[in-house]
Amino acid sequence: MPEHACDPADPAALAIIGGGAAGVIAALHALALAPAGARIVLVEAAGELGAGVAYAGDRPEHLLNVVAGRMSAFPERPNDFVAYLLEQDPVGTATAADLANRFVPRPSYRRYLQARLTAARAASPARLEVHRGRAIALRHGGATLSIELESGARLRATGAILAPGNRPRPLPGTRDPDVPPARLVEAWDEAALAGIPEEAAVLVVGAGLSMVDVALGLDARGHRGPLHVLARHALLPLPHTDRGHQGDGIDASALVGRPLRAVVRGLRGLAGEAVRQGRPWQDVLDAVRPHVQSIWRGFEDADRRRFLRHARRHWDIHRHRIAAPAQALIARDLAGGRLRLHRGRLRHLTRIDGGVRAEAEGCGGPFALDVTHVVNATGIAADLRDTADPLLAQLLADGMVQPDPLGLGLATDLDGRPLDARGRAAPNLRLLGSLRIGTLWESTAVPDLRMQAADAARALLVPR
């Protein structure tokens, strides 16, 4: 793809900041909607387009956490990802119905987005330019927006979509200054994980989806040392069924507009009824899925805080499930004693000979784990009030955006427009993904991202 270092005098019709999955999906919709001659710019700092942290690796054991039939980039073409998979294996034995219910390797989704972007660029009357660089500032410049890159280059655009992707939370607790940085590994850093010796004792902080990725990757590389998992609740992700999504016949609409306690009671009641009918509890979560945004918006602030404090982890392990083969490997390692689950909070890291001592506080008091490496799998950094992202920090400092009051991304309206320090919605800006979870709780999975991306592109490119 061509790369550009400077911007022509005329502003682009649209700038998309972030070239991960959300940004590329936004570009696909923009290319379909933009008029002839319109210029769209896509700004990505590094890495392959469509990758981000979720799809950047090439580990075949890392499977999508959603079946292929729900991963299309296009709401109007729900089977498009399945069609792509069939295109890649035209003489294979799998049918479209088979593939739709499979959890396929994650790298295939990056390649799908790249293939569809290539085709969209060739077919569109508009022009897409890819600018390699890190956006560090965005400011209003009259009727347009001015975007500054780390290189010093400046771009202008009539509207912009912010899709900066996800950043990891920092490791909790404190550490001695002499703890070697090489001993502290991010769950998304495949190169660093590959350097962990096979017999090394490893501590993974966090027990969610990122931990599962780490465990699967280490296992595939032949790691046989002890794998400690430390988490506040010590709750592991639960599996999908092998039946695909089966929420049909379960009416969860009565949960909308109810307070948190009533929603919890309602979910338990629906799950109990499903089990009595011989159906798995997973069917209830699939039936609730279309109503989650409305349920979240219906909560008072006190209920939202209560949910975050007491129910979020329980919700996450039921809602954000893993493929059955992944769950089977985790269960095997637990049963065999290689994976050891600890409930507690990380308090402090100290350097020791050959590694790190992790001091933690559990229900029974303090304890310590001596390991060679500590892997940060604590998840997405949703609280942006002290963000390390220079672009978001500038927008916050200038009052162009404000943090969500509960520390869930940025404050937005229902259309994804960020609210400035005075509460006014920006007409020519749209946010995608985890930046919006304070307003739209479900904002990180592809079925949500594609709707957000399509709506944002339409709002900024199609005259009303």
UniProtKB/TrEMBL annotation:
Stretches that traverse the bilayer: 12-34
Record carries keyword Disulfide bond: no
Boundaries of every FAD-dependent urate hydroxylase HpyO/Asp monooxygenase CreE-like FAD/NAD(P)-binding domain copy: 15-166
Pfam families: NAD_binding_9
Alphabetical UniProt keywords: Membrane, Transmembrane, Transmembrane helix
Name the UniProt record assigns to this protein: FAD/NAD(P)-binding protein
